[in-house]
Structure formats: structure tokens, C-alpha cells
Design goal:
The complex is a heterodimer. By secondary structure, chain A is α+β, with helices and mostly antiparallel strands. Among the domains of chain A are: 70-189, Dipeptide-binding Protein, Domain 1 (Dipeptide-binding Protein, domain 1, Alpha-Beta Complex); 279-502, Dipeptide-binding Protein, domain 3. Helices cover 29% and strands 21% of the residues of chain A. Chain A contains 16 helices and 22 strands. Chain A has helices spanning 2-22, 59-68, 116-127, 164-167, 175-178, 235-243, 254-260, 264-269, 295-304, 307-314, 344-353, 383-398, 410-418, 439-442, 460-469, 475-492; strands at residues 39-44, 73-75, 81-83, 86-91, 97-102, 142-149, 152-157, 198-204, 208-213, 226-231, 249-251, 270-272, 275-276, 280-285, 319-321, 366-367, 370-371, 373-379, 402-408, 425-430, 495-503, 505-508. In chain A, helix 12 links the parallel strand 18 and strand 19 (402-408). In chain A, helix 9 (295-304) packs antiparallel against helix 11 (344-353) and helix 15 (460-469) runs antiparallel to helix 16. Chain A is globular and about 80 Å long. Chain A starts with a helix and ends in a 31-residue tail after the last strand. Chain B is mostly helical. Chain B has a domain at 94-283: Orthogonal Bundle (MetI-like fold). Helix content of chain B is 78%, strand content 0%. The N and C termini of chain B lie close together (9 Å). Classes of the chains: A alpha+beta, B mainly alpha. Chains A and B meet through strand 10, helix 6 and helix 13 of A and helix 2, helix 3, helix 5, helix 7 and helix 12 of B.
Amino acid sequence: MRSLLLGCLLLLSMVACDNAEQAGMPGVEEVLIPEYGDTFIEASIGDASTLLPVLASDSSSSDINSLIYNGLVRYNKNLIIEGELAESWDISADNLTITFHLRHDVKWQDGAPFTSADVKFNYELYIDPKTPTAYAEAFKQVTRVETPDPYTFVVHYAEPYAPALISWATPVHPRHLLEGRDITKSPLARKPVGTGPYKLVEWQSGEKIVLESNPDYFAGQPYIKRVVYRIIPDISTQFLELQTGSLDFMGLSPLQFDRQTDTFAFRRLYNKFSYLNFGYTYLGYNLRKPMFQDRRVRQALSYAINKQEIIDGVLLGYGVAATGPYKPDSWVYNRQVPRYDYNPEKARALLAEAGWTDSDGDGVLDKDGRDFSFVIVTNQGNDLRAKTGEIIQRRFQEVGVKVKLRVIEWATFLKEFINPGNFDATILGWSGGPEPDQYNIWHSSKTGPRQLNFIGFKNAEVDQLLEKGRRVFDQQQRKVYYDRFQQILAEEQPYTFLYVPEALPAVSKRFRRVEPAPAGIKYNFTQWFVPRAEQKYSR
Amino acid sequence: MLQYLVKRLLLLIPLLLGITLISFVVIHLAPGEPTDMQTQMNPQAGTELQDRLRVQYGLDKPLYVQYGKWLSRLLQLDFGESFASDRRPVFDKVVERLPVTILLNTLSILLILAVSIPLGIISAVRRNSAFDRAATVLVFAGFAMPSFWLALLMMDWFGVRLGILPVSGLKSIGYEYLSWGGQLLDRFKHLLLPVFVAAIGGLAGFSRYMRSNMLDVVRQDYILTARAKGLSERTVIYKHALRNALLPVITVLGLSVPGLIGGSVIFETIFAIPGMGKLFYDGVMMRDYPLIMGILVMGAILTLLGNLLADVSYALADPRIRHNQQGEG
């Protein structure tokens, strides 16, 4: 793992050097005097649904909302929490109270001042039972909020809650435009007013969304004047547009990154970057089914899968093997957990130990007269998952386990298979974030219908660790709990953790200060700029 | 005639009701609900959000209550609000997609007519000639070709390699700043590929149809009479034969009225055109019931009216039919 990671880092730095030379910069010494202007054009496969962050749950809306709104805090490039609308904060000794000191110089895009009353209103908005929001959970832990003065906001918790601080990164909506009105009917969904670096200029449904820099942004006007999101639902079309130079940013597929962009014309226009994504793909076993209840069977299946082969075949090598729910370059990642490197002999031995042998000689293992065969289900629309399933299918067959693969449309998939627990095994992925709390996915209280622990994983020690993990603030202390949590998951193998894919963006060479970091690539977007001589769009 | 029209229009009402009822039931038979799509597999969303949304959308009520509510709003010409998280009125969502869809479909139908009518006539007149065979092969090749594949090839060729046409979309960035003529040219350039690709698949059907009509007509006695009168071949074909051969085209045009507002998902997706096809497809994938029903109802009304229109104009254009009807009535 370490060598792989190192390899990635090396690759990254090489890419960076390469770029510097090609752009004709005098090494790292290029004098960076940022200049204002130019337009950044990005494509999105779907239109935004609403520009009220409290109601939005799709990634297109979130991308745009992140430029229009701010939270009290945010992650910086190294995923350390820093202030955004809050200048600073104090956490009480008992970890039950957070006092935010808000910035004094923040104005809404319509000119109204931003105060603690806005923050209080937001808390009330998120927990209002009439608000159909997906983000209420974290705020339900709050017992009381106070606004002693316009620039101080105090929040109290009944129990210490570690994700509390980052939960205040949730975008803040303007109280003076929303209070006392039905949020689902607010015109702000199409004409947002935030505090952020960009404001909406134009939204043509299904076609494009245009943002313009906010000259009064409290952290300084961003350098890039306009941001255009073009809605291009087809990835091939996006890629063609990219090749003509009319897009400035696109997340490439491994195939495009590796094979289709290795041309002179492309390198002249774009820099390519790669870094590990948050999120991983897994094969989850329905633990309510008798055949998966024996831990040795699950371990055997993990041994039977060649993760590297999947990474090479499906991701063309742009990913790393997953060993648990955290990405390998994060602080919480436990390097010491048992690994399940490809080992079909061991898989067969473990299966035999669990009583599965090929007693009738038909090439399929059996036990008590029943063949070891099951169905892996996955959702339509994710080609990588279907391909992963096919590779796994072949490897399972080699150890005598017969597997069928079914790819099902998403709504049907949820309704008929996942919700009623009517599946054997499933290939799915979780996209996570820097916060390690995994309570909703692994706690035994979350195994009910429509909840996220749909494989029915129940482990008393894991329950305790997850409860403790979200109650302490100290990172060292949390790591102890989460290390043990990863250890148990690795031993139990309720999922076979498959891979963590890499993000593979291409960014137009005009843009400077593009530096991937643990937080991704766009964390410093407001600092990006184009030297005047290279600016492409004058208006 | 008027009596006939009124009768036909009245008959449309029960037909339309039946269509909405069947559509409504079928849509709700599809597994999954809009609330699943919006809340599930989201680590932050609790299950109570789903219950809350079900109540807000009225999905907790029995199906017949839901249908009754929907129908009573429809009778007040209200298509309801979309279940997507923007909750915009269905009518607004459809209306903003209509102009571009109608424009594209009209242009491509016009192109199909402009090419396939002459093609069909010439093929018929010079039946089994080299031209006829070549035309047959070409139009069927166009028909058989997957439109997404052709679209991608042409986008790659004209957009990327030659760089003379835009790859996708409807307008360039900075369209607002162009002069009046520049805007028109920009529009034209963006529409060229989509209209061409949309038309190419329709050529086969229409030109073959035209050809067989023409062949039918040429065998008729009145054509023989015309020739016997000593009229020039040109007059025989273009005046006597063509007029009669064009009659069935009216039916086809009538049937393509609903097609004017219907779009093609694949095609709109590839060219990044915000049309009806994509709207409907996304609605189905998200189980956005009011949106699906709204589009279906509008489509049904147009189909029924299109049929009626075809029948009526047929009667107006063809004296034989007109006289028959009067004879019966």
C-alpha cells in the first residue's frame, strides 16, 4: 500500500513538473500576480434542481450552491476545520457548548448585513418538521441555541457530539428573505441570495447556469469573473467539447485519462491531475442470509477476489485497494488491519472449514445438499460496478461458488431488493468525507427498513466504538476507537472492500494556482486566476 | 361537417379520461417512489424525511384519492407541481422546453419532406433504375444507423477535427453580445447537425411511402387517360399523378403532430439540447408522477387532435371522401 501511495504522489509531482515546463514557465519561480477576469466553463451531466441548499440533495445543485453560499466553518486544503462566516469559535471544557464569533464584515448579496439571527433562523429552518431536508440529523443533537449579540452564536448539546463543529459548515440562508414563508415555495430556489464569492446571473433550465463574481465578497472578490455550468448530459459529448477547448474543466474517466488524452493537442490545452477520491466501492453480503452468517465464508470470498485485477481492469490502475471504510491517505486510516490479498487456495480451505465442499463433483461447492450459489445485484447506470461484478463472478467460479449478476434500474433496485432485504449480495459504493463518523452505516440500530445498514451488520463492540467515537473531540482518542472499528470490520468482512477510485480532472492551462490537495482540487477556486495575456473571454 | 366535428370532439372526452386513468395506474405500478429517489442512500437523511415527503406529496393516501385530486386539478387546467426538489409547476417546466423541441421537430420534418418527396417521385418514375436502387440503399442505411453513433461521428468530424461547427448546445457562450445577424448564424450553426441527424432516420419511411403511392397512382386509369390525351410526361407526373399521390401524406403529417412536442432522449442527451424527451425521461427515472402525467396528457390531447385534423383535412382535400361522407350522413 505504502509503495502504491508513494507511486501516486510521485506521479502527481511528475505531472506537476511536466506541466510547468510545457507552459513555458521558468520553473517554480514564475511570478504569480493574480489578475481579474476571464470565464471558467464547466460541464455538468445534470441540471441543478434548486439553489436553496437546504432542499438540494443532488451534486449539481451542491456544486453551484457551494459558490453562492457559505457555512460558519469549512475544511481547508488539508481537511482541517477553519472559519468561514465564523472568525473563531470556543468549545467549552465539557464539549457541550460551542460559541461562534461571527465576522462583522459579511453582507448578503442584496446588501443586508449578516448576523447571528441568520444563523439561528437556519438552525430552526433545518429542524422544522415542515422542511423536507436531508440535512436535519446533525442538528437534532442540538438542545438550545442563543444569540447574545449580533455577532455571537452559541449552541448547546446534550451530549458531546464530535461531528458538531463541521455540521456548521452547512450553508447559511438569508433570514430576512425566508422567515415566515413556505420554504418549498420560495422564489429563492431560482434566484438565490447568499454571502458567497459568486452570485447567480442567469439560469436557463437544462442549458446553462451563469455565475458572476461578487465584488463585495468578504474574503475578497474572486479573480475569475464568470463561472458557466453548461448542462451536457452525455459524457462523450462533454469529452468532444473538451477537445475543442470549449470546456475548461472535466472529470475524466480512466479510459479517457489514460488512452484518449495522450495527444499533443490535448496536452497543449489542458493539465491533467489525479488524486484519491473520498468514497469506495464494495461487495456487501446480506448477513440475514444463512450462507453469509459464517465469518469464514465471507473471509473466503474476500480471498477469492483479486482486487488489483479489478483496479487494473476496471479503473485502468487509477485507484487503490480498499481495506475499510476510510481512504488510505486520511488520518483515521488504520494500516495494520488484516488484508485479503488474492489467495484462492486459502479461500477454498476456509470454505471447506465452513462445511462447503464439492461432494457431488459438479464443480460447485455444496453443503447439506445445497449448492453454494447466489445473486449479486447492482444498479444500472454505473458501468464500473457491472464490470467489477463480472470479474468477481469469474473469480468466485474458480473457487466453486456460482454467482449470477443482475443489473437493475435504481428505483426498482431500492424498492424491490435493498429495502425489503431481498438480495444476497450487492455491489455499491459509499461516498464519504473527512468526518470519520460511520454511525448511520454500521450501527445495529440502523438496520431497519430503508436505513443504511441494510446488510444487517450487528456487532456490540462496533456499536460501542461508534457511540464513543462521535462523543469525543480529541483526534488521537478518536483514532483509537476508529482503529479498533476498522480492525473488527476487517476481521468480520461484512463487506469485501474493493477499491477507492481516483479523481481524474483535466483543467485548462490558462488557470493558475490549481493544486490538488487532500481536500480535492477546487477548494481554492476563488484564488484561481488567468494571466491577462492568456484570458480568453473578455466579458 | 360541423355536426361530425362536434361528435368527434365529444368522443374525445371519454377517450382522454380513459387514457389518464390507465396512465396513472401504470405509472404507480412501477416499483419505487419519488421519495425513495430523493432520500435513500444518503447517509445524512433520516427515514422520517421520507415519511414527511410522502405526506407532503400526498402519497400516503389511497391511489383513487390521489387520482381524484389530480383529475380535479386538471379540470381547472392545473397540472400540479413537480415532485422534484424544485417543486415548480409542471406547466412551467413543460412550457420552457416546448419552443426548442417544436423548432427542432418542425425543421426536421420540413427537411424530411423536402428531401423524401422528390426522392420518392424520382424513384417511382425511374423504377428499378440505378438511381432508385442507390436511393433505396442510402435511405435504409440512414434508417438503420444508430442516431447516437452518427451524431457522435459528425460531432467529432465537424466539431473537433474540422472545427467548423459547434459540438453541442443551442447557443455559443457570448451569444448575447453578437449582432442580430451573428445570432442568427450562431443559431443556424448549432441547429445544423441536430436537424440533419434527426431527419436522416425519417427519410427511409417517408420516401418509400411516397414512392409506393406514386407507383399506385401511375397505374390508375386517369393517368392512362392523361397520357392518351397527349399530355407531356412532365405534366402527367407533376400535375395529375403527384397531386393524388400526395393525399396520404396528409395522414402522415397529422400523425406527426404529437411528434412535434415529443422528443428523443438519446438525441437530446447527445446534443445537450434541453427538450421534452430528456424532461420526460428524467421524470420517469425520478418517478416524478405529476410531470409524467402532465406530459402524457398533453401528448394524448395532441395525438387525438392530430388524428382529427388529419381526418378533416383529408376530407377537405379529397372530394371522393367528402362526397362519401355526405352520402352517408
